[in-house]
Backbone:
């Protein structure tokens, strides 16, 4: 299994897209590309599981190490473990769904799909990188297309939002960059697997960990650096919102975990109270802020802040279960929020409004979309049978395993957010989906085939994880265990 | 030769330094572009004095300083020529060679 | 203090005095003349230091070339008689402060460094030496700078021509010629001197 | 021996030959620009290609001139940049009356830079410095009828004359304390007295002036704005690049004993440059002025790289300059085309540029990304390596400031992109016909921006021939 | 022990019905959805009865007690070693009992709905939801793992939400469904934290292991959980109280009961199923499930007792004043569940002292029948009258004889008149309370009388009172609606005679019980008196009730407004949480947090504007700056940094 294909496929798709003409051709190519990615991701999953079942116990599989810059220790070093595979699957699903949702995108369609595919390339590259340079490279690749996607195809105060998003994310990556250089100069290597084996001196860890963690934290909407999220999501076109919330924010979470925590566990331990406090604030505060929103996209955006708080919380708690929960939450939230945005997008294209107050009773005219909306909402509030429950419960269980008053308090407060979540989700659902139908909307149609397919794909993912979490547990369990072993070693050393 | 030692090198350098800053003062305060140019010539000349003095007093073995000053004189001439050409062109477009009149581009 | 020293101080006072006048006089033409005196003063300083060749070049190029050029340009821009507006008070104060500080600072540095002269001074500048060294490619030859400078002069000349040439309008034809002449003078004098 | 002479001096000699060729053409019968420009471009292309043959290490004229692989590469970069600028100037020069003179000035300046880069002696250095300035000042006035053009030329010549006076003061003092002009001797003693340090600072400030580092940068924006676009491009790319090379060679070779001093000077200047450059770039509307300030900020980054004082840093600096050449020229290329046809030079004129000129928009966008340092453009690699080199000394706070300033710089680069793609305009710039030459140049820049980073061989080659402190 | 794996079919059949109807119902099964759902439930019920038969009578007791059988267990989600969510099936007396109740009542409701919901646009969806609910409830009662309980607990909650909001175009229905979900969610928070505490200290989430570990006084887990404490109470107490809060939420115990009356916005059969017979007793079931652990902690048991008793009384008082028949029934449900709760609270784990437990379960069992019957009857009435208000009814006994009889039977049962089912279970509860706590006994007794009063108030108001304003053209309902009524009425009469004490007890061993006539005298007497008063007041239309209400004045108003609990909650949410927490946070986010980010940008721009003077356009100024820069560097490097 050659992992580079994950980068190559989108790249080739993007290049072909540049030479396409007409909406039809463009979207067919984009869809085919995304479909291939999806197939490849599934194939990768199968190959991975096969390898594992054959007894391959290496931390990383399908490793490939190519000296990129021979005079600097920069390698093109890629490899995957279960966590990365989960993220890759997530990415491919969302990209596929995103392209389907934007099927009717007519304004500059070629550029739109081009950027979307480019984004996916960045995400794949990020998730498979084992070299910090490559990782950073792909991280930044995944930022700029968002700027254009929001700014050109967005709505509302799109330019402001696009700029804000780009700048804040770039500030994040600038922080990451400083941290990476620090790590590099302490270890002389960019190779994560190697760095993990070395013990970075404590004071160095203490100094650079905040840079890396905060940097990635901005991507993951860490309080108080989450303010790009609402504006960015609200202004973005549907597919970009899906991608933004579904994948981009996961880049941050993954980075916090894979780079910050994995490489500098002692510092992670040292700073965990702060991380926990910030995460808890994000969870509670995000939830309450969501409650007051009147725009569907803002609702989902703020709820993303709250939900991504669980990711940070899980990481900050530093127990194996909580970290597993964080990963699960990333996957779950990715799918769920993408679905939510898809639903909102579908509603918006029909009603041309996203204001809760102006909608109502949509269930009557668009039962499919409404059902999708409700499912996304229920997943968001952590209903069993959907992925959200599995993820959140894992985080809670893991968090509770970390004794100590602060941790306990944080866990309890975070748990409390499920109530607030219920409030805002039901409020939104009650006002848009239920209630009397506005006469103006009585002629609107239900979802088209592409939208159904997209939503179906995402729902399948959500339900699969929700109903059979042992499957994904099998995938990410060993990965987190290996990671935790490494982390545990260092923390105990101290 | 002995007479030279009565004047310390430092005094010559003081003179050249003074001349340099006289030129600089001119550069800072004059309004007319041609006078700015003259101020610059003064500064360059002061440097020439430096070169000659150092060469003569400290490093008489080689002629580096002398040569340098010769080249400076040449360059100064070329620079002055170009500057004057530019000033004339400026005069054509602005009808003035006041330096404060040519401040269209700023901030 | 012997006569030699007195001469030095006299020359210095002269060149600094005229220099100051040159940068402060209100009338531009006078300013040019003071500059001329100052440059002559510098040339005499060179004479005093017994580097006659440089002194000669100084007089030929500066007095004979540049100052003339400047005076020409003053005429061309028709400002010879006018009183120039003085600088603003603030500007003067600031400049004065900066300059005085700079000068004081530099003099202090010079003083602090304490140059020690060599006792037996064997400095002599023969024109022939200069000529051979200028064109020598060996260790202390200056043929490379010489050639470089010639290319520079070429470039400068062409630049001057293009810029100062007033296209199509015959009115200022004279300017062009004067320009070319002036530049030509400078260049030829330089070439002559070094050869 | 003679052969050696020719080989070592080949690049300079070729330039001189071209200058004379142009002179002869000028003397001959009048030719139309349409026939002249292709010829000149071909000659310049040959010049670029010739640069890659027969490299040899050595020195001439008693250490006054020396060359080596890195120096040849640097000159090749400058040659290439000059050629690209020439290609990009096509539409501007087509109607210009003084094409040959323009090229002579450009090439004279280039020659000056070559000597400057190769210099082993303060005299040659100084002459090179002047030679690369005076013709450009003249060239800045080449939009003869424009008020701004003469203002720019005036500002440039006065500023540079002032700067050279200070540099000369510094050189004379250095001569005074060392008795020599040779790089190998002048700074041997190190910063043991204030006098020496001040002399050194004066000299460095001259370089900083040419590189337009804050606070010696003030001429830059005005000159860039007023000068013809091609000259601005030349100033901002070739001229600046050459000084970077010189300062690199000078500090790393001659300035060894002063390493501690210049290290700190560079840091002070780089912080000032990055911050002030960014702050001013934020508020610009004129595209050239904007690029001026952006290049000032870039200089700050280059200084950080130089401050690293290792082989990695010199490689990073040269590499960055190469990348910078491509990126900046791509941007100037588009600006030159637009300016030549429509005369519009403001960023706000580019609103909805994408609707009429998609290709140019993409080139400009990628150039902005490359300048901003966004992957996968080469600019990302350039900046990464620079800061990596700078971080080697452990001054992470500096890297932190630089990194955060990169965010500010993102703002204004993205603002351009925003203007092009997102803003509405009822009268966008019309669809431009791109001359073949310019198209070629833009493609070269595009290829450079996209490939020079990803293909590690470029960097690896530069690294293999560069040197540390 | 024989194989019980087939039991898995009981929940899975409704699930299949849900999936089928949910995915394809709208298109393909618009008419046949009811039949499909009912058939699935019929099969489930039969299997459940078979299982009950097998468990109680075929396999029977081992060593004098019924034992727990884990029929099936699968690790669904592993957290860490030992701690995992398992999906499984537990077979023990209460789960089997609940299986029967849930599937049976659900079947009845399915059947009833065939007629009741006929012609609804979203008929298939309705049956899908019913299937989902039944599945969840069955899953809940079969849980082996405390997290499995929680999981199905949530599912039950959401199906309740969906069903309450079935008439989604009615804003009140939407509001009620939201309220129900959010209030129970709030309670679930307690449950969840309780689980976390229990799981953390016992190192397992498996219920039987957990019970095993936490009930032996010497086990390290027990010592850990009782020594750890917070705010003066041990971790065990906290955990149990929190779990009980979860139960209280679902079971509508004070003060989390406010959702239940509003939940009556849903279709009436749904109320019968969810809000009378099954879901609302989940809290009781939960406490019963964890009863061995509860029995280790007196404080927790006291909480259960007093909350239960108070709820019972409160609900009964409120029920007397309500005019919406479904709301009366809702409060009566709450009251009866209060009975079950305090019965558990006064119980102990072993032997004779376990009477309360048995009584509670017994009451749960009987209550399921008569309360669902009451609701279905109410449904039939509403179906005819198209109103929930008592004042729109009256004299219906002639129009709907079947319903009338069934309703009467149910009323007698709930009032505790022998020999109806309610009598037996209530007797046991009273006895248990009498044995343990006289205060509780008094409350219970009073409540029993109140119950009889308000139930017969309802009965007389509906079926007697004024003459019917409705014409004969109205029919009582379809056969499919009558059959369940008849069956349930029969059950209501019959189930009291089941020897429950032999079957379902705390420790599995049989309990000797007997009806003590002397003891029964007081409650039955009080009940009869209450019925008489009700008959006096409501059989004929007269001004009596109004007079009494007037004479009570303020008290009556407070009671009829449900002690202003709704208003209190509204005040807390609308006046405190939204404006005092939500709004400020949203404001802070937009203006302070985001404002800081924006301020950063605008400050930068300001600075940029502030220093623009540097670039004055005057070349002499530039030179001055140049010289200044040189000087600055010189001073820095010569004097400052050497």
Residues:
């Amino acid at each position: 299994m050659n992992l580079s294909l994950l980068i190559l496929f989108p790249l080739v798709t993007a290049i072909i897209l540049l030479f396409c003409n007409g909406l039809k051709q463009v979207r067919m190519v984009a869809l085919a590309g995304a479909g291939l990615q999806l197939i490849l991701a599934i194939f990768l999953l199968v190959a991975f599981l096969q390898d594992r079942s054959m007894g391959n116990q290496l931390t990383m599989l399908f490793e490939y190490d190519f000296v990129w810059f021979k005079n600097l220790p920069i390698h093109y070093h890629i490899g995957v473990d279960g966590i990365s595979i989960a993220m890759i699957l997530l990415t491919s699903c969302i990209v596929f769904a995103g392209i389907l949702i934007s099927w009717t995108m007519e304004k500059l369609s070629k550029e739109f799909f081009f950027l979307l595919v480019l984004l996916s390339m960045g995400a794949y590259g990020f998730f498979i990188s084992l070299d910090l340079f490559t990782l950073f490279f792909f991280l930044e690749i995944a930022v700029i297309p968002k700027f254009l996607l929001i700014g050109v195809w967005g709505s509302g105060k799109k330019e402001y939002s696009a700029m804000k998003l780009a700048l804040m994310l770039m500030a994040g990556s600038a922080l990451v960059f400083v941290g990476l250089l620090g790590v590099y100069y302490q270890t002389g290597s960019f190779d994560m697997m190697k760095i993990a084996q070395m013990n970075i001196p404590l004071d160095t860890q203490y100094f650079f960990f905040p840079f890396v963690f905060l940097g990635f934290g901005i991507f993951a909407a860490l309080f108080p650096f989450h303010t790009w999220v609402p504006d960015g999501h609200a202004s973005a076109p549907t597919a970009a919102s899906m991608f933004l919330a579904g994948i981009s924010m996961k880049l941050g979470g993954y980075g916090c975990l894979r780079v910050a925590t994995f490489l500098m566990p002692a510092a992670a331990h040292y700073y965990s109270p702060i991380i926990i406090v910030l995460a808890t604030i994000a969870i509670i505060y995000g939830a309450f802020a969501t409650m007051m929103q009147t725009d569907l996209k803002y609702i989902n955006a703020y709820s993303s802040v709250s939900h991504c708080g669980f990711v940070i919380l899980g990481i900050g708690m530093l127990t194996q279960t909580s970290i597993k929960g964080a990963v699960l939450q990333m996957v779950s939230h990715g799918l769920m929020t993408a679905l939510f945005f898809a639903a909102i997008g579908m509603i918006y294209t029909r009603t041309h409004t996203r204001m809760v107050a102006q909608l109502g009773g949509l269930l009557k005219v668009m039962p499919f979309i409404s059902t999708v909306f409700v499912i996304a909402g229920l997943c968001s509030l952590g209903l069993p049978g959907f992925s959200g429950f599995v993820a959140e419960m894992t985080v809670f269980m893991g968090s509770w395993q970390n004794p100590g008053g602060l941790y306990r308090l944080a866990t309890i407060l975070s748990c409390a957010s499920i109530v607030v979540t219920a409030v805002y989700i039901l409020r939104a659902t009650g006002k848009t989906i239920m209630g009397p139908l506005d006469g103006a909307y009585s002629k609107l149609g239900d979802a088209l085939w592409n939208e159904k397919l997209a939503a179906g794909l995402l729902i399948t993912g959500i339900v699969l994880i929700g109903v059979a979490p042992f499957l994904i547990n099998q995938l990410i369990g060993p990965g987190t265990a290996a990671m935790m072993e490494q982390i545990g070693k260092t923390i105990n050393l101290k | 030769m002995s007479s030279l030692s009565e004047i310390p090198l430092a005094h010559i350098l003081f003179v050249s330094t003074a001349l340099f800053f006289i030129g600089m003062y001119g550069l800072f305060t004059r309004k007319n572009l041609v006078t700015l140019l003259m101020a610059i010539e003064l500064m360059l000349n002061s440097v020439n004095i430096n070169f000659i003095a150092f060469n003569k007093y400290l490093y008489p073995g080689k002629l580096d300083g002398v040569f340098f000053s010769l080249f400076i004189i040449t360059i100064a001439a070329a620079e002055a020529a170009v500057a004057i050409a530019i000033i004339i062109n400026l005069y054509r477009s602005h009808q003035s060679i006041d330096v404060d009149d040519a401040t269209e581009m700023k901030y | 203090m012997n006569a030699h020293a007195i001469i030095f101080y006299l020359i210095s006072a002269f060149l600094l005095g005229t220099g100051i006048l040159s940068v402060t006089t209100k009338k531009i033409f006078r300013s040019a003349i003071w500059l001329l005196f100052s440059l002559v003063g510098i040339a005499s300083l060179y004479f005093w230091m017994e580097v006659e060749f440089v002194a000669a070049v100084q007089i030929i190029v500066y007095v004979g070339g540049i100052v003339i050029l400047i005076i020409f340009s003053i005429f061309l821009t028709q400002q010879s008689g006018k009183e120039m507006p003085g600088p603003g008070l603030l500007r003067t104060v600031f400049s004065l402060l900066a300059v005085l500080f700079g000068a004081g600072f530099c003099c202090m540095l010079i003083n602090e460094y304490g140059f020690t002269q060599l006792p037996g001074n064997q400095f002599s500048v023969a024109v022939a030496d200069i000529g051979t060294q200028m064109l020598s490619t060996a260790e202390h030859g200056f043929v490379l700078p010489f050639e470089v400078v010639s290319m520079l002069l070429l470039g400068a000349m062409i630049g001057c021509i293009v810029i100062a040439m007033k296209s199509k309008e015959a009115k200022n034809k004279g300017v062009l010629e004067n320009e070319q002449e002036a530049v030509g003078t400078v260049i030829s004098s330089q070439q002559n001197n070094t050869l | 021996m003679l052969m050696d002479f020719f080989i070592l001096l080949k690049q300079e000699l070729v330039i001189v030959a071209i200058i004379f060729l142009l002179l002869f053409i000028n003397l001959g019968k009048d030719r139309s620009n349409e026939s002249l420009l292709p010829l000149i471009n071909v000659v310049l292309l040959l010049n670029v290609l010739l640069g890659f043959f027969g490299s040899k290490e050595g020195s001439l004229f008693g250490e006054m001139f020396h060359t080596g692989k890195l120096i040849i590469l640097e000159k090749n970069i400058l040659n290439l940049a000059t050629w690209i600028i020439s290609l990009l100037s096509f539409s501007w020069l087509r109607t210009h009356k003084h094409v040959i003179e323009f090229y002579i000035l450009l090439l004279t300046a280039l020659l000056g830079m070559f000597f400057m880069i190769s210099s082993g002696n303060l005299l040659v250095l100084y002459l090179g410095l002047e030679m690369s300035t005076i013709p450009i000042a003249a060239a800045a006035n080449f939009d003869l009828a424009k008020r701004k053009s003469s203002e720019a030329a005036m500002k440039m010549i006065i500023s540079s004359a002032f700067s050279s006076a200070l540099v000369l003061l510094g050189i004379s003092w250095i001569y005074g304390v060392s008795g020599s002009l040779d790089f190998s001797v002048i700074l041997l003693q190190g910063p043991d007295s204030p006098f020496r340090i001040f002399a050194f600072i004066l000299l460095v400030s001259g370089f900083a002036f040419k590189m337009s580092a804050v606070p010696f940068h003030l001429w830059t924006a005005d000159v860039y704005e007023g000068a013809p676009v091609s000259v601005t491009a030349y100033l901002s790319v070739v001229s600046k690049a050459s000084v970077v090379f010189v300062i690199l060679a000078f500090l790393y070779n001659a300035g060894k004993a002063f390493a501690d001093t210049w290290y700190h000077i560079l840091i002070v200047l780089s912080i000032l440059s990055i911050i002030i450059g960014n702050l001013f770039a934020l508020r610009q509307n004129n595209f050239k002025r904007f690029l001026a300030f952006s290049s000032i900020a870039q200089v700050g980054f280059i200084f950080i790289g130089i401050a690293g004082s290792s082989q990695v840093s010199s490689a990073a600096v040269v590499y960055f300059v190469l990348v910078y050449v491509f990126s900046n020229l791509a941007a100037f290329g588009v600006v030159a085309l637009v300016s030549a046809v429509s005369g519009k030079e403001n960023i706000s004129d580019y609103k909805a540029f994408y609707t009429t000129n998609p290709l140019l928009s993409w080139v400009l966008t990628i150039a902005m990304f490359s300048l901003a340092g966004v992957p996968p453009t080469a600019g990302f690699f350039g900046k990464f390596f620079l800061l990596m080199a700078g971080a080697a000394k452990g001054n992470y706070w500096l890297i932190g400031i630089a990194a955060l300033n990169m965010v500010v710089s993102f703002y204004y680069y993205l603002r351009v992109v925003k203007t092009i793609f997102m803003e509405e305009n009822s009268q966008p710039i019309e669809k431009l016909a791109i001359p073949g030459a310019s198209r070629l140049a833009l493609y070269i820049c595009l290829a450079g921006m996209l490939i020079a980073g990803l293909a590690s061989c470029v960097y690896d080659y530069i690294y293999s021939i560069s040197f540390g402190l | 022990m024989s194989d019980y794996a087939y039991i898995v079919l009981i929940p899975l059949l409704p699930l299949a019905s849900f999936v089928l109807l949910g995915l394809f119902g709208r298109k393909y099964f618009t008419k046949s959805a009811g039949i499909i759902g009912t058939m699935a439930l019929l099969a489930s019920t039969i299997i459940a009865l078979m299982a009950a038969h097998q468990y109680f009578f075929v396999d029977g007791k081992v060593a004098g007690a019924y034992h727990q059988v884990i029929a099936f267990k699968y690790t669904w989600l592993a957290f860490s070693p030992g701690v995992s969510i398992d999906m499984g099936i537990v077979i023990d007396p209460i789960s089997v009992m609940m299986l029967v109740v849930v599937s049976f009542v659900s079947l009845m409701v399915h059947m009833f709905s065939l007629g009741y919901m006929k012609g609804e646009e979203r008929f298939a969806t309705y049956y899908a939801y019913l299937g989902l609910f039944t599945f969840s409830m069955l899953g809940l009662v079969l849980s082996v793992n405390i997290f499995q309980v929680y999981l199905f607990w949530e599912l039950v909650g959401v199906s309740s939400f969906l069903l309450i909001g079935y008439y989604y175009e009615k804003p009140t229905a939407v509001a009620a469904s939201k309220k129900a979900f959010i209030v129970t969610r709030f309670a679930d928070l307690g449950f969840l934290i309780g689980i976390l505490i229990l799981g953390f200290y016992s190192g397992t989430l498996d219920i039987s292991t957990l019970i095993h570990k936490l009930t032996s006084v010497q086990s390290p887990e027990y010592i850990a959980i009782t020594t750890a404490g917070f705010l003066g109470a041990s971790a065990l107490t906290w955990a149990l109280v929190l779990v009980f809060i979860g139960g209280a939420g679902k079971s509508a115990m004070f003060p989390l009961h406010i959702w239940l009356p509003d939940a009556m916005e849903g279709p009436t059969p749904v109320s019968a199923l969810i809000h009378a017979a099954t879901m609302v007793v989940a809290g009781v079931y939960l406490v019963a499930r964890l009863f061995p652990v509860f029995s280790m902690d007196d404080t927790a048991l006291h909480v259960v007792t007093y909350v239960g008793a108070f709820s019972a009384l409160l609900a009964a008082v409120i029920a007397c004043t309500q005019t919406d028949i479904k709301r009366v029934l809702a409060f009566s449900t709450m009251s009866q569940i209060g009975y079950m709760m305090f019965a558990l609270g006064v119980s102990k784990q072993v032997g004779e002292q376990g009477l309360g437990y048995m009584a509670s379960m017994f009451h749960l069992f009987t209550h399921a029948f008569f309360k669902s019957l009451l609701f279905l009857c109410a449904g039939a009435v509403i179906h005819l009258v198209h109103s929930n208000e008592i004042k729109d009814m009256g004299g219906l006994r002639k129009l709907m004889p079947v319903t009338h009889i069934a309703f009467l039977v149910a009323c007698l049962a709930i009032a505790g008149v022998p020999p109806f089912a309610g009598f037996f279970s209530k007797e046991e509860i009273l006895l248990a309370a009498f044995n343990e706590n006289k205060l509780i006994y008094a409350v219970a007794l009073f409540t029993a009388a109140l119950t009889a009063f308000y139930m017969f108030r309802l009965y007389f108001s509906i079926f007697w009172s004024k003459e019917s304003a409705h014409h004969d053209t109205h029919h009582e309902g379809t056969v499919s609606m009558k059959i369940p009524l008849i069956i349930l009425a029969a059950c209501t009469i019959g189930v009291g005679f089941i020897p429950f004490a032999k079957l379902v007890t705390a420790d599995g061993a049989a309990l000797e019980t007997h009806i003590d006539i002397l003891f029964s005298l007081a409650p039955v007497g009080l009940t009869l008196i209450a019925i008489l008063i009700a008959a006096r007041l409501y059989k004929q239309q007269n001004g009596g009730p109004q007079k009494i209400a007037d004479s009570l004045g303020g008290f009556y108003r407070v009671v009829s407004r449900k002690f202003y609990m709704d208003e209190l909650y509204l005040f807390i949410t609308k006046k405190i949480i939204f404006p005092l927490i939500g709004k400020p946070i949203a404001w802070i986010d937009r203006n302070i947090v985001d404002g800081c980010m924006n301020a950063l940008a605008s400050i930068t721009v300001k600075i940029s504007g502030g220093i623009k003077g540097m670039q004055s356009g005057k070349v002499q100024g530039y030179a001055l700056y140049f010289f200044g820069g040189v000087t600055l560097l010189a001073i820095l490097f010569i004097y400052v940094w050497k």
